[in-house]
Specification:
Order of helices and strands: HEEHHHHHHHHHHHHEEEHHEHHHH
Structural class: mainly alpha
InterPro entries: MFS_trans_sf (IPR036259), POT_fam (IPR000109), PTR2_symporter_CS (IPR018456)
Oligomer: single chain
Shape: globular
Subcellular location: Membrane
Keywords: Membrane, Transmembrane, Transmembrane helix
Helix content: 55-70%
Strand order of the largest sheet: 1-2
Membrane topology: Multi-pass membrane protein
Number of strands: 6
Number of domains: 3
Number of helices: 19
GO molecular function, one term: transmembrane transporter activity
Strand content: under 5%
Radius of gyration: 26 Å
């Protein structure tokens, strides 16, 4: 009997619903089949995002600020929909079906985008720079088709992000030492393939868009995702499937609803009178923070269905442990709120910074760098910073302070500081570019100034992301309750989403307050006539204010020491958010 049990995985089943046979399911090969989906998702989303603003301005003839907002709204929606994908996977579909369904949706989205950029009827009539004042912007129908394609892609991306890495995790048994080691190896490869997909997107795919044709580039994305789906489905019989414990979002709402229903009741002086049914080994002890939520654990008449003591109505009565889990999540919100502004700064790297690059000299010999490919310096800054931190800073810090590197809150702080310097550098570079533009004249298509002037802003913000991304990831994973690791990853991804939306809001406000009827102002329809340097300066000031608020929140927050058992779990769940890169 013991031999038979050793060949099955306790908490996993096969595609027929029987206990998963360790020799026939799971492991590295099925997990590798999932990687193709992630590579193609990165290739599509990033390849579109980093070069979309040039298409909107140059082909669809939209104003500069409007184009930037289209891009940031698209990216913000992609990350926000991760919550929807996670909810569907946890509550109804499961990770396998969620990946398959949303991968098909993204395939349809990239296919629609290929058609939208190919057919002349779906874009306005071309015009020359010398006649820019007579250029007609895209009409409602043309923009409608473009929006439909973009938001199909955003929906597909959101569903995939929520489940791909988690389903990869399901293919390994953490209780088996050999498979546990394979899991770590899988996530190392997972991060490598994510980086590969991103680099291919900002180099090869952007080059194809500019030199061969956008419809060809997007068609390649659609076809490659279709092939990845077939590869993914081919492993259906070899995958391990784990039963979901339910959506953490539902659990949070249950505590909130129960607390609201009992808002007029008094919490007993003796907290031991509060309801608790969690086993002692996994129990979280009561704390005095956010005492209003404690009312969800007050036992009252009608809390138990059919008078069965073991079956309380979760919308009326919650255990102390469940309440404390929600308290832990609420405690993360101040840090969560003060990291959003970083991603607002990040949004400028794929919008206005790319538009700046499109007006500058980008030639190296006979080769001209595509404007969107300049973000390769951004990706390089991330990889270089991570390597320096891992190989130099961490060993030095361990010898000096006896600690393995900076804490998660310290890394977030460093990221915020670097992004502030990045915006200051961007303001100075733009001031120089505008001076050259005024001297060269408004009709000059390519300004006599090197695009490499923009490298400092890409490098500083990229280095900042390396610190803040790993810091946020570590913070949200280690400081959240064990049963809400997926939820904490989703909370982390919402900072990216809201950062893009804040960027759209800020651009709209600045455009309204500084603009004029002739399309001028800080964010002019043509950036050579605007004051983008002032906008970057405004972001630098907002970064400074936000950093002060962050220091206050970080001082208020009392970190919880993670249990040793969470170390591998941190690696696993942490990697699930790495698919942003």
């Amino acid at each position: 009997m013991e031999r038979k049990m050793s060949w099955t995985v306790a908490d996993a089943v096969d595609y027929k619903g029987f206990p998963a046979d360790r020799s026939k399911t799971g492991g590295w090969i099925p997990a590798a089949l999932i990687l193709g989906i992630e590579i193609c998702e990165r290739l599509s989303t990033m390849g579109i995002a980093v070069n979309l603003v040039t298409y909107l301005v140059g082909t669809m003839h939209l104003p500069s600020a409007t184009s930037a907002n289209v891009v940031t709204d698209f990216m913000g929606t992609s990350f926000l929909l991760c919550l929807l994908g996670g909810f569907l996977a946890d509550s109804f579909l499961g990770r396998h079906k969620t990946i398959a369904i949303f991968a098909i949706i993204q395939t349809l989205g990239t296919g629609t985008l290929a058609i939208a950029t190919k057919l002349p009827q779906l874009r306005p009539i071309p015009c020359h720079a010398s006649a820019s004042l007579t250029c007609k912007p895209a009409n409602g129908f043309q923009m409608g088709v473009l929006y439909m394609a973009l938001y199909l892609i955003a929906l597909g991306t959101g569903g995939l992000k929520s489940s791909v890495s988690g389903f990869g995790t399901d293919q390994f048994d953490e209780k088996d030492e050999e498979e546990k080691a394979q899991m770590a190896y899988f996530f190392n490869r997972f991060f490598f393939f994510i980086s590969t997909g991103t680099l291919m997107a900002v180099t090869v795919l952007v080059y194809l868009q500019d030199e061969v044709g956008r419809s060809w580039a997007y068609g390649i994305c659609s076809f490659s995702m279709f092939v990845a789906i077939l590869i993914f489905l081919s492993g259906t019989k070899r995958y391990r499937y784990k039963k979901s414990l339910g959506s953490p979002i539902v659990h949070i709402f249950q505590v909130i609803v129960a607390a609201i229903k009992k808002r007029k009741k008094d919490v007993p002086y003796n907290v031991e009178l509060l309801y608790e049914d969690t086993p002692e080994a996994t129990r979280i002890h009561h704390t005095d923070q956010f005492q209003l939520l404690d009312k969800a654990a007050i036992v009252a008449e009608g809390d138990f269905e059919g008078n069965v003591v073991s079956a309380p109505n979760p919308w009326k009565l919650c255990s102390v442990t469940r309440v404390e889990e929600v308290k832990m999540m609420v405690g993360l919100l101040p840090i969560w709120a003060t990291t959003i502004i970083f991603w607002t700064t990040y949004a400028q790297m794929i919008t206005f910074s790319v538009e700046q690059a499109s007006t500058m000299e980008r030639s190296i010999g006979r080769f001209q760098i595509p404007a969107g490919s300049l973000t390769v310096f951004f990706v390089a800054a991330i990889l270089i910073t991570l390597a320096v931190y891992d190989r130099l800073i961490m060993p030095f810090w361990k010898k000096w302070k006896g600690k393995p590197g900076f804490t998660n809150l310290q890394r977030i702080a460093i990221g915020l500081v670097l992004s502030t310097f990045g915006m200051a550098a961007a303001a100075l570079a733009e001031k120089k570019r505008l001076a050259v533009a005024r001297a060269a004249g408004a009709t000059t298509a390519t300004l006599p100034i090197s695009v490499f002037l923009l490298i400092p802003q890409f490098f500083l913000v990229g280095a900042g992301e390396a610190f803040i991304y790993t810091g946020q990831l570590d913070f949200f994973i280690t400081q959240s309750p064990k049963g809400m690791k997926t939820m904490s990853t989703g909370l982390f991804l919402t900072t990216l989403s809201l950062g893009f939306f804040v960027s759209s809001f800020l651009v709209s406000v600045v455009k309204r307050l500084t603009g004029s009827n002739d399309g001028q102002g800080w964010l002019a329809d043509n950036i050579n006539h605007g004051r983008l340097d002032c906008f970057y300066g405004l972001l630098a000031v907002l970064d400074i204010i936000n950093f002060v608020l962050y220091l206050v929140c970080a001082a208020w927050y009392k970190p919880r020491k993670p249990k040793p058992a969470l170390q591998m779990e941190t690696i696993v769940n942490g990697s699930s958010a790495e698919d942003k890169c």
